[in-house]
Design a protein that fits this description.
Peptide Methionine Sulfoxide Reductase, Chain A, 6-stranded mixed sheet, 27% helix
């Protein structure tokens, strides 16, 4: 097993985590906050858009079963990367589309994934590609939220390209 990490933001973290947790090769997921300046942010602050953080998902995956490029291609299928600071009804910078890369190899893969995704979207892709700095775990009640609350709100689905 070769464990790697991806950190992605694509709107409300509940749906992103739920869909990624079902992918073959994904070993573990955690929801949290990334990309802002506030130390140890709390949901009540993040949801108001005051921290600079995006609702994010940390994905640990087995690279022998799924490649980082496949993780990224799936990411572009499950959210709309053309809407700045928005996913359906969720509006604000905390819902922006971001790929947080860990190293230069991931950065290169991310930029290539954006180009591949452009073929499938009619509007310009606004996904940010940003160097990963720190991931702050969200509160426990957010972890695996849609598994704990099967009727909960989700604005993500897999598009068929």
């Amino acid at each position: 097993m070769i464990l790697k990490t991806a950190v992605l933001a694509g709107g409300c973290f509940w749906g992103v985590e739920y869909l990624f947790s079902k992918l073959n090769g994904v070993v573990k997921t955690r929801v949290g906050y990334c990309g802002g300046k506030t130390e140890n942010p709390k949901y009540e602050e993040v949801k108001k858009g005051m921290t600079g953080h995006a609702e994010s998902v940390l994905i640990e995956f087995d690279e022998e079963k799924i490649k980082y490029s496949e993780i990224l291609d799936y990411f572009f299928k499950i959210h709309d990367p053309t809407t700045p600071n928005r996913q359906i009804n969720d509006i604000g910078s905390q819902y922006r589309s971001v790929i947080f890369y860990m190293d230069e190899e991931q950065k290169s893969e991310a930029l290539s994934a954006v180009k591949r995704a452009e073929v499938h979207w009619k509007k310009k892709i606004v996904t940010e590609v940003v160097k990963f700095e720190k991931f702050w775990d969200a509160e426990e009640y957010h972890q695996k939220y849609l598994i704990k609350n099967p009727g909960g709100y989700i604005c993500h689905y897999e598009r068929k390209f």
